[in-house]
Amino acid sequence: MRKKIKNNVSWVGFIDWELQEFHGSDYSVFHGSSQNAYLIEEEKTVLVDTVWKPHEDFFINNLKQVIDLNDIDYIVVNHGEVDHSGALPALMREIPDTPIYCTANAVKSLKGQYHQDWNFQVVKTGDTLDVGNGKSLVFVEMRMLHWPDSMAAYLTGDNILFSNDAFGQHFAVEELFNDLADPCLLEKEAMKYYANILNPFSPLVSRKLEEIGGLNLDIDIIAPSHGVIWRDNPVQIIEKYSAWADDYQEDQITIVYDSMWEATTALANAISSEISALSPETRVKVMSISKYDKNEIMTEVFKSKAIAVGSPTVGNDMLSSVSGWLAFLKSLKFKNKKAAAFGSYGWSGESVKKIEEMLVESGFELVDASLRVNWTPTQENLAEAKAVAEALLG
User: Does pTM surpass 0.70?
Assistant: First the structure.
């Protein structure tokens, strides 16, 4: 089975409706995903990427139904991560001498993972591979989008950019194309993917988008390695990436917390109410770390101009759920966002100060207001939330 993309280019990947987590358990998947591989059949036959090892039998058997494997002249590996290269060892056992075109770092990655010395052909930005009929693949290194080995490949003539992890989403769409997908889910999953995986590399994203623009490529289709293929106005996702990479924020404030006996919950709700009273047009999200998915929370943080983080004091510190979430927050390197801390305590009361320290370490601008309440908050305590709301709205 193949699905036609354009002219002599087909999709030969795997749609994974059952996938629920990715990167170990670090990324949640609620709407399935896909591992997109592509077949170019001009005078030369080129396979662009493979699929994850659990699906290697399906992938190779499907390829055999589409073509004679010995007719594959070249394999392009845009990125060595196992969700794209996992089926490569099984494929190479069938066609062991086939040249593999990839970056120098991808050679290190593939050798390190599979311990095979295949027929590697190292390419860099601007290198080309003639596929016949007047068409070529032009290679563009995409370092840290999102591994050091990443690259993209552009097919001239058909004007297709095989972008690998850039511009993708974990989103299963049987119909493949963006104009056939649920637009609301597509927007949500594309932003979630960027916020949780690519945001730490936003400065590199901006520079790479400028570099791609400088190549003056006519792009009719963007074919990433996960999710939809962008054929309807494909530039729209490039424009979104450009905006997302520029310290993105909306008129939103997200309140993130965990609680033991609901005193800190009361503080979270009080801050939320005060924000809405002061600025009704500002969207407010209140999200419990123990009840909401962490990647969904991070997507809301990504959209926010400010956040408030709360925890009660336990063991002279904050709850471990909050400290773990803050460690994840730090790794995503958000910029140009304000933050405040809040929490309740019974005896020693260190949580607010420790949260503030971690927020500063994570690159947030700490506002000059916090909410630290002994025992169950009174109405007078809850009224103090207004100062935090005013500071966050700033």
Answer: yes
